[in-house]
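Session log. Operator J.P. requested a structure for one protein chain; no other inputs attached. Running the standard single-chain path with token output.
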Amino acid sequence: VQLQASGGGLVQTGESLRLSCAGSGIRLSLYSMGWYRQAPGKQRELVATFTRGGSTNYVDSVEGRFSISRDNAKNTLYLQMNSLKPEDTAVYYCKAYLRGVEHWGQGTQVTVSS
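Structure written below.
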């Protein structure tokens, strides 16, 4: 089982990025999914979730700017991030979870300059 996160980079305030989390050896449609982030010196926090049924939820700080989605045909989870702010700078991780079983991706760095 592997989750491969990609799409991070260095952008300026107000720009956009789309993160991807591709699954191999795992069918993502069977799992609930989440994007998390961890900034330097801070705890990892949940950013957005995508349930097996397709419901989404967001932390208040990204509501209206970020959008989580999943393409079952491509077995990939996405996080579209618009209007990025310096406080969005962090390593972003994807997670698949089901009945207490968790699988984590390796993380992708997002840096937003002011």
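Operator note: DSSP finds no helices and eleven strands in the chain.
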